[in-house]
Amino acid sequence: MILHIVNPSPFDSQALADCLKHISEQDSILLIENAVVAADQSSPFLEQLMSHTVYVLKNDVEARGLQDRLHEHFSLVSDDGFVELTIAHASSMSWY
User: pLDDT tens digits, residue range 20-41?
Assistant: First the structure.
């Protein structure tokens, strides 16, 4: 079970697309920093993300003013939640 941590915006980088090509059903995704825009209700990446367990870092969502636009499928996590996710998964992989 891998926690895939995606950092850059999917509009500026292939990181999310590459992550989605390599993720398994048991894995989870954590969107941080500019990658949180992928969790917007109008995101073109929404359909691909819906078939996975996806977490979104709350502070980064709030910093970008997306709290009212986040799709309900995604779980917001705090910084402490970020740490808990890394502990709960056997390993993590960062996508930049």
Answer: 999 999 999 999 999 999 999 9
DSSP strand pairing (75-77 vs 53-57): parallel
Q: What are phi and psi of 26, to 5 degrees?
A: -80, -15
Q: Name the residue among 88, 13, 79 with its Cα closest to residue 53.
A: 88
CA atoms within 13 A on the CB side of 66: 26
Q: Which one of 3.30.230.10, 3.50.50.60, 3.30.710.10, 3.40.1260.10 gives the CATH number of domain 2-95?
A: 3.40.1260.10
pLDDT digits (tens, 9 = 90+) for 53-65: 999 999 999 999 9
